[in-house]
Amino acid sequence: MTAQSLKSHFLLNEDVTFLNFGSFGACPKPIFERYQAFQLEMERDPVQFMTVRLIQYLKKSREALATYISCDADDVVMVPNPSYAVNTIAKSINWQVGDEILTTDLEYGACDRAWKLICSQVGAKYVRQPIQLPLLDAKTFVDNLFTGVTDRTKMIFISHITSTTALILPIEEVASWAKELGIPVFVDGAHVPGHIPLDLNTLDVDYYTGACHKWMMTPKGSSFMYVKKSLQPDIKPLVVSWGYEALFPSHSTFLDWHSLNGTRDYTASLCIADAIDFMETYNWTSVAKRSRDLVKTYANKFSELLDSPLLAPLNDDFIGQMLSVEIKTPDPEKLYRTFVDEYKIEIPVMRHDAKVYLRYSINGFNTAEDLDVLMAAITDIKKKGALL
Ligand SMILES: Cc1ncc(COP(=O)(O)O)c(C=O)c1O
């Protein structure tokens, strides 16, 4: 199936070169129609929908998702977004003063903020281990990260795919080293489902969150939180609702506590099976491969144009459907508006500590022409002297 015919399945504006699938995904028409059908069903019969059918529908979603990411359906709950899962888990653990949460300095800003606040409230320490870039190989990365382990390290929190730097991190190696040391691991896999394969049974980490509304293409507000069975009793609901001390408890306190958290629109989370069907119908494994190939084809040109090195070796271990390179600009927010307003290119220009990164994302509807448009825009912006 060509990129053009795949594009016809998306609702994206035709006049924009869309190179930012990574931020919020984009929902294909058949999945979006299913979402709206659920919303209609809810509005026609709100009470029966919310009090009877919703829990059944959520069960089906969990089951479909669990098969897709290989875990027990009772170990995963639907949550609105990964921040929700991070807050739920971080606030549940009985931290002691001086405990340390080891992480990298490549994490998503919202998660850093959540951890910092919670650590400041309980007297724990959020340790952002500086990671040497460019990445060289898994072993060097693991050695680098584990230099930050001390006898106070109570958890490792780490992205599976980083946001601003768009790097796939060697999570399998991190998990197995952490296991040797008896340190629990919490993986932020916001970018993972639908992007790279995920097998939670094999990975065997303690906590994992992923967004379904990015690369899995469900409507926004659909993510998951996985917690290893033995740890579930410790994880308290972020929003306490009827599932806590439930009048009619199910077989699982974990599901009761976390599945429902007050009245809201849960329908985005009901479209999981439809998203998986869509990916199967359009052979998303080969779409993803084609996209990764396109990402790599332009990587060196992108890095040369921006006069910045690639952040990792160009292979599937480190690079998926996104590529980030540092860009030297005095005003990232203005540069972002320039891409959008003058060149009609949607691409994130992201601050990360003292640096700024430009990241392109590629999905099935993108073509080499999209990246040519980006390269031409960067060349033009450089000519105008807008980069340092
Ligand atoms: C690495 C990473 N973690 C977490 C998130 C989750 O953000 P939110 O909870 O705002 O959806 C994102 C979103 O882009 C991300 O890139």
How would you describe this protein?
This protein has helices at residues 3-7, 21-24, 29-44, 46-69, 82-92, 109-122, 138-146, 171-181, 200-203, 253-259, 272-281, 284-297, 299-305, 332-343, 368-383, and strands at 17-18, 76-79, 100-104, 125-129, 153-159, 185-189, 207-211, 223-227, 322-326, 345-346, 349-352, 355-361. It has 388 residues and is α/β, with parallel strands linked by helices. The protein has a 7-stranded mixed sheet with strand order 2-8-7-6-5-3-4, with helices on both faces. The longest helix has 24 residues, at 46-69. 43% of the residues are buried. The model has no long low-confidence stretch (mean pLDDT 98). The structure holds pyridoxal-5'-phosphate. Pyridoxal-5'-phosphate (PLP) binds at residues 23, 81-83, 108, 110-111, 159, 163, 188, 190-191, 211.
Largest sheet: 7 strands, mixed
CATH 2nd-level architecture of the largest domain = 3-Layer(aba) Sandwich
Fourth CATH level, the homologous superfamily of the largest domain: Type I PLP-dependent aspartate aminotransferase-like (Major domain)
Beta fraction: 5-15%
Strand order, largest beta sheet: 2-8-7-6-5-3-4
Shape: globular
Hetero groups: pyridoxal-5'-phosphate
